[in-house]
C-alpha cells in the first residue's frame, strides 16, 4: 500500500484557489424578474392635468429602449390615439412622454396603457394602465349669431344673440371683449345669458347717430370657466329705417280702397290689424290680419272677411281690440241690420287654426250706425259704442256683453244731441267700469258708468270758448287705469289726464305741435306699459302734411317727437285714417291708410328705437 505524504495534501490545498481561478467563475443566476412601474405623473384619477406638461413613468429597473413603441405605450382619449415623443433617462429607469397631438375637446379623459415593455433581460412588464382628466384648454368659439352677417332691416329693439361652443364666464363679456360699433362709436348694451351660459343676449342701450346704418359686432377674448379666451370673430348688419315697415300693404285686393285700420299689440307679441275694403256689391267687407313674424307676412284670420260674404250692398263700419287672452274682438255694422261682435278663438295652443265666434245676436239698436267702437277690460268686460241718427237727432248708445245671459245689455238711455259725433271713444278699466267721451255745450265730457247711471268726471274739458271739433277726440287707459283725453280745438290739439284725487282734468302741456301755427288733429291715442301717453298727431306744416308720434315726457313736462315724420298724409279729412298701439318693447306701432291714385292701401310701421 502506497502512502501519500502529508505535505502533498498541503500543497494541493494551497494551489486550489489558483487552479479554480484559472478555470473561471460559475455563471450568475439568470434575470427572470419583470420590471415594474413604481410611480407616474400624473397620478391615476388626477384632474385638471396640463397636457402640454410632460408625463413621467418611473420603473424599478432599466428598460430596453427598443421596447418603447406606440404599440407598447399607448395614450388615448375617448378611443382616439394620441401621438407623443419620448426620452429615456441615462439610467433608463424614467420614461418621459410629451404629447404631440391632443383631444378634440377639453377637459377630456386620457388613458395610458403599458404592454410588452421589457427590461434589459427581455422580461416583459405586466400589462398596466392608469387614467386622468385633462385641463380645459379649449377656447370658446363663436358658433352662430343673430342677426346673420349681412342681414338687413334689423330692429334696434331686437336682441343681438351670440352662441358659443361652451359656457362662457359672464364677467368676461365686457365692451372690451364684445363691441357693437356704429362706425367708430361703440354702443352701450346690457348682456344676459341663458341657463347654460352658452348664449349671450345683447340689448342695446344707446342708439346709432342716424338710421338706417350699419352696425358691426366684434368678439375677442370672451373666456370660459378655465380662462381660455375666444379668438377674434365678428359680423355686421344693416338696421331698419327710423320707422320700419312691417311687411307689405295689407290689402286683400290691391285695386280696392282699403281703409280705416285698427291696430292692436298683444302681450304675446302678436300684432293684429282690422280694416275695411269695398266688395263687388257696392258695400264694405271687414278683414282682420295677424303678423306672422316667422313667415314675415300678414295672415288673414279666417278664410275670408269677418262679416262673411254678403251678396248685397252693405256699408260696414268696424272696430277691433284684443281681449285679455290676446284674441281679437271685432265689431262691425251690417247695413241696416245693426251691429255684430265676433271673437277669434284659436283651436290649439300653437295658434295653427281658429274661427270667428259671434257674441250673441245682432244689436238691432245700432241699425244705421255711422261709427262704432269696442273695448275690453282686464276682468273680461266687453263694451261697444255707436252713434246713429234717429228722428233727426244723433244718438250715442253703449252696451256691454252679458256672458251669463249671452246678450247685449244697454248702458242707460241713448244720449241725444243735435250734431254728429263721429269716432265716439270707449274704454274699460281694470274693474270693468266703462267710460266714453261726448261733446257738450261746455266742451268735452267724459262719463263713467257706475252700474246704474252715467256719472260725469269733473267739469267738461275746454281749451277755448267754442265747442270742440266733435269728430276728433280720443280716450286711452293705461295699465294702472290712467285715463287720458285728446281733443282738438281752434287753439290746437290738447291732451288732459284725469286726476282722481283732485277730481279734475289736468292739462299735459299746451297745444301740441312741432311747428308753431301748424294745423293739427289727434289721430290716435294710446299708453305704454308705464301708463305714459303717446299720440299720433296730424300736422299740416310748411314742409308737408303727415303724421307724427308724440310721447309725453313727465320729467320735462313736454311732448317729445318719437323719431321724425312717421308717414305722409295729404288729405285733411283724417278722422279715422290712423291707429296706434304699443308693443312689448314699449315702441309705438302705427297703421294708416295711404291714398294711391284712385285707391288706398293699409300700411303698418314700427318705430325702430330702443326698448324702454
From TrEMBL:
It comes from the Bacteria. Pfam families: Big_5. The keyword Signal applies. Coiled coil: none annotated. InterPro entries: Cu-Rt/internalin_Ig-like (IPR014755), SbsA_Ig (IPR032812). Residues 31-132, 136-238 form the SbsA Ig-like domain. The keyword Transcription regulation does not apply. Residues 1-21 form the signal peptide. Keywords: Signal. This is SbsA Ig-like domain-containing protein. It comes from Oceanithermus profundus (strain DSM 14977 / NBRC 100410 / VKM B-2274 / 506).
Amino acid at each position: 500500500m502506497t502512502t501519500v505524504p502529508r505535505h502533498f495534501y498541503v500543497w494541493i490545498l494551497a494551489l486550489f484557489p489558483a487552479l479554480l481561478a484559472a478555470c473561471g467563475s460559475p455563471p450568475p443566476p439568470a434575470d427572470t424578474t419583470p420590471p415594474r412601474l413604481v410611480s407616474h405623473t400624473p397620478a391615476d384619477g388626477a384632474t385638471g392635468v396640463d397636457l402640454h406638461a410632460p408625463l413621467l413613468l418611473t420603473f424599478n429597473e432599466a428598460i430596453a429602449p427598443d421596447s418603447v413603441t406606440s404599440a407598447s405605450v399607448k395614450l388615448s382619449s375617448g378611443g382616439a390615439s394620441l401621438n407623443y415623443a419620448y426620452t429615456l433617462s441615462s439610467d433608463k429607469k424614467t420614461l418621459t412622454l410629451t404629447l404631440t397631438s391632443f383631444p378634440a375637446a377639453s377637459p377630456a379623459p386620457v388613458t395610458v396603457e403599458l404592454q410588452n415593455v421589457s427590461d434589459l433581460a427581455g422580461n416583459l412588464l405586466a400589462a398596466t394602465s392608469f387614467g386622468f382628466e385633462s385641463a380645459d384648454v379649449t377656447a370658446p368659439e363663436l358658433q352662430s349669431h343673430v342677426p346673420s352677417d349681412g342681414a338687413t332691416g334689423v330692429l334696434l329693439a331686437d336682441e343681438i344673440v351670440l352662441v358659443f361652443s361652451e359656457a362662457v364666464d359672464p364677467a368676461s363679456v365686457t365692451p372690451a371683449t364684445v363691441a357693437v360699433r356704429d362706425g367708430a362709436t361703440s354702443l352701450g348694451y346690457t348682456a344676459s345669458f341663458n341657463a347654460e351660459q352658452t348664449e349671450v343676449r345683447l340689448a342695446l342701450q344707446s342708439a346709432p347717430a342716424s338710421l338706417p346704418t350699419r352696425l358691426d359686432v366684434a368678439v375677442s377674448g370672451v373666456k370660459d370657466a378655465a380662462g381660455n379666451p375666444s379668438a377674434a370673430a365678428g359680423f355686421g348688419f344693416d338696421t331698419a329705417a327710423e320707422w320700419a315697415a312691417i311687411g307689405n300693404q295689407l290689402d286683400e285686393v290691391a285695386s280696392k280702397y282699403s281703409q280705416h285700420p285698427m291696430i292692436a299689440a298683444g302681450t304675446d307679441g302678436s300684432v293684429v290689424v282690422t280694416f275695411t275694403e269695398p266688395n263687388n256689391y257696392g258695400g264694405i267687407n271687414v278683414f282682420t290680419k295677424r303678423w306672422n313674424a316667422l313667415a314675415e307676412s300678414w295672415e288673414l284670420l279666417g278664410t275670408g272677411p269677418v262679416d262673411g260674404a254678403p251678396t248685397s250692398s252693405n256699408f260696414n263700419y268696424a272696430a277691433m281690440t284684443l281681449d285679455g287672452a290676446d284674441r281679437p274682438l271685432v265689431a262691425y255694422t251690417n247695413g241696416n241690420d245693426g251691429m255684430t261682435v265676433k271673437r277669434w278663438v284659436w283651436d290649439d295652443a300653437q295658434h295653427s287654426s281658429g274661427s270667428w265666434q259671434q257674441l250673441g245676436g245682432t244689436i238691432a239698436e245700432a241699425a244705421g250706425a255711422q261709427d262704432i267702437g269696442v273695448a275690453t277690460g282686464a276682468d273680461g268686460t266687453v263694451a261697444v259704442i255707436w252713434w246713429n241718427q234717429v228722428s233727426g237727432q244723433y244718438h250715442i248708445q253703449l252696451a256691454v256683453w252679458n256672458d251669463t245671459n249671452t246678450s247685449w245689455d244697454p248702458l242707460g238711455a241713448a244720449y241725444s244731441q243735435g250734431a254728429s259725433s263721429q269716432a265716439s271713444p270707449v274704454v274699460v278699466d281694470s274693474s270693468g267700469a266703462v267710460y266714453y267721451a261726448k261733446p257738450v255745450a261746455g266742451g268735452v265730457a267724459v262719463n263713467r258708468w257706475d252700474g246704474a247711471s252715467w256719472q260725469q268726471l269733473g267739469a267738461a274739458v275746454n281749451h277755448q270758448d267754442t265747442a270742440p271739433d266733435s269728430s276728433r277726440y280720443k280716450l286711452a287707459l293705461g295699465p294702472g287705469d290712467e285715463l287720458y283725453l285728446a281733443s282738438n280745438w281752434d287753439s290746437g290739439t290738447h291732451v288732459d289726464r284725469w286726476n282722481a284725487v283732485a277730481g279734475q282734468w289736468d292739462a299735459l302741456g299746451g297745444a301740441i305741435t312741432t311747428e308753431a301755427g301748424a294745423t293739427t288733429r289727434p289721430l290716435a291715442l294710446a299708453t305704454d306699459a308705464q301708463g305714459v301717453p303717446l299720440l299720433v298727431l296730424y300736422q299740416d306744416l310748411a314742409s308737408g302734411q303727415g303724421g307724427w308720434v308724440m310721447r309725453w315726457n313727465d320729467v320735462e313736462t313736454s311732448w317729445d317727437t318719437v323719431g321724425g315724420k312717421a308717414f305722409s298724409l295729404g288729405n285733411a279729412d283724417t278722422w279715422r285714417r290712423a291707429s296706434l298701439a304699443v308693443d312689448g318693447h314699449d315702441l309705438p306701432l302705427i297703421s294708416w291708410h295711404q291714398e294711391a291714385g284712385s285707391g288706398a292701401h293699409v300700411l303698418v310701421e314700427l318705430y325702430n328705437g330702443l326698448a324702454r
